[in-house]
Amino acid sequence: MELVAIVIVLALIEYFVFAGLVGRARVKYEILAPAISGHPVFERYYRVHQNTLEQLMMFIPAILIYGYYGNPTYAAGLGVVYLLGRIVYLRAYVADPAKRGAGFGLSFLPTAFMLVAGLIAAVMNLL
Known about the structure:
Strand content: under 5%
Oligomer: single chain
CATH class: Mainly Alpha
Radius of gyration: 16 Å
CATH superfamily: Membrane associated eicosanoid/glutathione metabolism-like domain
Mean pLDDT: 97
CATH topology: Four Helix Bundle (Hemerythrin (Met), subunit A)
Low-confidence stretches: none
Number of strands: 0
Structural class: mainly alpha
Number of domains: 1
Distance between the termini: 23 Å
Helix content: over 70%
């Protein structure tokens, strides 16, 4: 489970970095708080940050459950795919939101797999 813990910490650091990018864009595009709109590029950074939070709400329980009841090494590996997917998502979304699909898939699919596999593994453990 140590690898799972490391991946979770990296995911939280990644989210923290995304927050910094939002802050930097806020200053660059002169978007005064509490506004969350005003320049398209700022809004893209903001949406990536918010979308990442939405994904984290599923990712963290999924990796913990699958890592505990299933296979922690596979869970960590899938978590790395998630981390890379969020970077791909960030780059694509900021450049052109219509091209965010690959990054979304690379982060959503590992989470979905771990949710299902974690449920199956927990049920099998119960039986």
